[in-house]
Amino acid sequence: MPELPDVEVFRNYLDSTSLNQSIQSVQLKSLKILKEISSQELEKELPGRKILGSHRHGKHLFLRMDDARWLMLHFGMTGFLKYFERMEEDPKHDRMLINFENGFHLAYVCQRLLGEVNLVEDKDKLIQEREMGRDALEMDYNTFKKIIQEKRGSIKSALMNQKYISGIGNIYSDEILFQAGVHPKKEAKQLGEAKIKKIYQEMRTVLTKAIEYHVDPAQFPDSYMLPHRDTDLRCPRCHNSFQQIKITGRTAYVCPHCQE
DNA sequence: AGTACCACCTGACGGC
DNA sequence: TGCCGTCAGGTGGTAC
User: Fold this and answer.
1) Which structural domain, as residue segments, surrounds residue A14?
2) Strand C at less than 7 A from CB of A7
3) Terminal CA-to-CA distance of chain A, rounded, Å?
4) Would residue A94 count as lying in a domain?
5) What is the pLDDT of residue A230?
6) Mean pLDDT, chain A, integer
7) DSSP conformational letter for A164
8) Residues A58, A91: one domain?
9) A138 lies in a domain?
10) Strand C contacted by A229 CB (< 7 A)
């Protein structure tokens, strides 16, 4: 799931459930989601603290703790959050459990263990150290244009490169390019200014709308690719079949008739 | 600076 | 029922 819109939905979910509550205890159930920090440190440092707010950068979620540190969550390909009271509701692949003093629990769930949890003093320093690009929804047009014009390779891999633009993954890059009528294999450098502008506008529209629809494909307009990806595999415009091609190892869906 | 390929992981699905 | 290959909305390393 977790591209920019998914993580924004997680953020809203967290904000409406888990803020300003004292943490009683924390359990790490898998060490594989930890890269820079030990389970002992998390289990020792978080109890007694509260989450005061949240910030999203691309696909990363940062939770601001009341000691000014940041709990960083990345969701890999299969992660999400769940807030619940009864332990029977604890999801199957819970990897970290935050137990609040009010009796509720927040689970960080990550089936394939490709996500990461970390606790840092300075989130901006981490963003810089890990060379994360500007968040896709925070990026102005001129910066976007410069990035696209300077990149070699396909427009799809340019959009998905987190080092330049943070937040867009396989699904939403397909959707943005479908809406813009641009073929994902098109060389970024060869795009004219009108097309770059169109892609930029569609990037904003698609990501914003996806958040509004709570990333639920059933709520997307029929004119979007997403609802058709897992069903009829047909282009809602021309009704021809979507083609599946490989671009830098990922499966891209494309309508050869509507995208050039 | 690109791409191709592998690795990290778990699990679902189709073919035999 | 079981085994096997393949694939999955992410990312990082390596070789070319």
Assistant:
1) 4-129
2) no
3) 27
4) yes
5) 84
6) 96
7) T
8) yes
9) yes
10) no
